[in-house]
Each structure stands twice: as structure tokens, then as C-alpha cells.
Specification:
By secondary structure, the protein is of the alpha+beta class. It is built from two helices and six strands; from the N terminus they run E-E-E-E-H-H-E-E. Strands 1-6-5 form a three-stranded mixed β-sheet, with no helix packed on it. The protein has a three-stranded antiparallel β-sheet with strand order 2-3-4, with helices on one face. A hairpin with a 2-residue loop joins strand 2 and strand 3.
Amino acid sequence: MAMNLTTRALYFRDGKNVIVLSPELGVTSWGTSVDDATRNLKEAVKLYCETARDQNELEDVLEEAGYQHEGTMWVPPALVDQQDVEVEINE
């Protein structure tokens, strides 16, 4: 039986490349464009979930990440806020 999963994708520029992060799962990938990075993230998340499933840990992994199971869809936790936070580091 197939299931679907939604994850957030945060994108960062690194030189000519785009780094993309799934914050809920801690999965990162990259590409030469946003579209390329998105395709690569989807593949990385799929492999991550398939590995967890093969180890009979997928439900535990998703629940620990805050996902809710709704029918055939796993939905990430609600985003409350997003901010850039400045941190002072003493020299």
C-alpha cells in the first residue's frame, strides 16, 4: 500500500548550488537550481523513509518528528513561527 508524506523544504544558496533541508526529518540535499534541489530532496526523503520502513521504524520515526497520520497521508507538525535569530558569540 502506498502512502504520501508532506515535508517542508528550506532552501539556502551556497555559491552556485542550492541546499535544501527537510527540517522535520533532518534530511538535506542539493542541486544546481531550486527545481533540481527539490527533485533530489524528494528522492532523499523517499530513501530515508524506505530505509526506516525496512527496519520497521517508519511510524516511530515520523511520530517522533511530530507527524500526524491522516488516512494515507503523513502531515508534518504545524509551523508556529519562523524567525532569523541573532546570536552573539564572544571572541
